[in-house]
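thought: fold this chain, then report.
action: predict
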Amino acid sequence: MKAIKVGLLGIGTVGSGTFNVLRRNQAEIRGRAGRGIEITMVSRRNVALAREIVGDAAQVVADPREIIANPEIDIVVELIGGCGVARELVLEAIAAGKHVVTANKALLAVHGTEIFAAAREKGVMVAFEAAVAGGIPIIKALREGLTANRIEWLAGIINGTTNFILSEMRSKGLDFATVLKEAQRLGYAESDPTFDIEGVDAAHKATIMSAIAFGIPVQFDKAHVEGISQLQATDIKYAEQLGYRIKLLGIARRRSDVAGGGIELRVHPTLIPAQRLIANVEGAMNAVVVQADAVGTTLYYGKGAGSEPTASAVIADLVDITRLHTADPDHRVPHLAFQPDSMSNTPILPMAQVLTCFYLRLCVADEAGVLSRITTILAEHDISIDAVLQRESAEGEKQTDLIILTHETQEGRMNTALAQMQSLPTVLAPIVRLRKEELA
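observation:
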């Protein structure tokens, strides 16, 4: 059978990994796909550098539109990144009747609805396993492996840079700025790490997973996003003393207790009980926990980035498309798991309606009655206390840290209570508030 011909738009870290793995494992891949898969064209502005990678095995061009215009190309792999030129090229490839594989999470989180609609109209596939959690097959698990289940929630460590930083801060007791510099030196963090450390990258991925899990459109603009740049080593230490570890989590949860239902979609530093498996995911590794009604809890763990781990996901998509290349478009797996006419308009809930537990750290005057006033305010807002830790003040000190863990409460209620506590004259510094999830 004639081989499927592939064009790569971009051949950097992931593109070169895709080219090398596909060539190295060609026999096994052909046996699984039922026909050969060949990268026959590659585009890169630096043509000479691209030729060093592919040699004579593929035609190299500077203009990616030459690949899209080539009638022999069956699948276009977009590895350029960003939402500008990449969006234009993906839509042009779809309009030309090409299937598309992309690792571009930002593109899909922001423009996915437009792209998937265009693909449905042309009867082509858009595959994106590599866009979330690198080599971990979480998209396939959500779209196909868990298709019999009603998914209740998912929570993931889906950014390796921030997980490396938090792991180092915990194990070595270092502050954020120090570990960030080390992460940049080692290549775990970009020279401009904003998208990673401020949670944007994780929010792109959480947005895509939420759409597949709950059958809703991709809605990145409605996600709540907080990063780790303001996180202090002090709070990591206190969390550890209380039996918790802090991770940057992307969380999506179905809520049936609000009128009409709703979805929580949020990214923020989160306390997790230390005995949970996901709390022990260290370094630059990724992990996603999914809670579903039939199967219960499942955990997906592995490398979330890197040349060959991400290439593994790209090639898996190439194999899937190759298998279904001639299938009736109406009987392929839908892009977001649900058939288009079965997609839900369940709203993303504002953060004020989110239900979660809280970690509070208050720097307070070391005098009688302070704890009583704090707990009274919490009680007045129906916020139940789970645990309290008070650091003993050194001799001569007139202030101390008061750590409070709460049971689950509505975020809006906590915001009101925090404003009241902050106004107390015995609260001497801005209150640190982190969210806590049991993931039980």
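thought: worth noting. The domain at 139-303 is CATH 3.30.360.10 (Dihydrodipicolinate Reductase; domain 2).
final: tokens above.
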